[in-house]
Amino acid sequence: MTNSIFKTLQKFRIPKSVKRVFNFVGGLFLTACCFFVAYLTFQNGWTDLNKVDKFEGIITEKGITTYQTSTSGRYRTTSTNQAFYLKLEGLNQTLAVYNPQQAYSSLDNNLYVGDTIKVYYNHSNLVDKLNLETFQIEKNNQQILNSQDFQGRERIGFYITLIGGFVLLFMTFYQDRKFKLSK
Fold first, then answer.
1. Residues 25, 135: Cα–Cα separation, whole Å
2. Residue 169, exposed/middle/buried by CB under 10 A (0-12, 13-18, 19+)?
């Protein structure tokens, strides 16, 4: 009886050549995803402030808000983060600043409703969501938010995803070579 079960299961086994192709293509796809994210973070991490959108306006609303980020897939996770947000007169976006330490007291204490500020940011077409790509905030020609804070986090993300992409690429070819040698 057990022999017949094993013979039936052997019919459903995936051949090694098919496994090899799926592993190779899957590894290259994940590597390409890592390199794409690295490219995006590279663009933000080394952007010249003269090349991003600038807006000068009066603060109509400010505060600290929560927003949710989620990942999809088999084990879906959702996390709630806090961000400091600003709404400016004449701008149809809600600009926001994310700080991993969740420390926004310096922004909250230096920016008031009615203040005129200059903001450097990347324009977003999603006007109903927070725009977290705020590079720098200036008030009276003084930097309230330094562009190096945002760009520093983007640079760290670039290095992590670039190294991860190369590790995945190495593992993909290593695994493929292992399949070749096992024939």
1. 37
2. middle
Q: Give the pLDDT band (50/70/90) at residue 100.
A: confident
Q: What is the mean pLDDT of the chain?
A: 87
Q: Take residue 7 and report the two structure tokens written for it.
A: 């013979």
Cβ-contact 82, 104 below 8 angstroms: yes
**Predicted TM-score of the model (pTM):** 0.73
Rounded to an integer, what distance in angstroms lies between the CA atom of residue 179 and that of residue 14?
14
Say how far apart CA 26 and CA 20 lie, in whole Å: 10
Dig out the tokens for 173 from the structure.
């070819």
How confident is the model over 110-126, as pLDDT tens digits? 999 999 999 999 998 88
Q: How confident is the model at residue 20 (pLDDT cuts 50, 70, 90)?
A: confident
* Helices 16-45 and 147-181: angle between axes, nearest 10 degrees: 160
CB 137 within 8 A of CB 111: yes
User: Considering only CA atoms, which of 128, 154, 155, 134 is closest in space to residue 67?
Assistant: 128
Lowest model confidence (mean pLDDT) among 14-23, 31-40, 125-134 = 14-23
Position 28: which residue type? Answer: L
Q: What angle do CA 107, 119, 66 make, to 5 degrees?
A: 50
**String of DSSP letters for 116-163:** EEEEEE---S-TTSEE--EEEEEETTEEEE-HHHHHHHHHHHHHHHHH
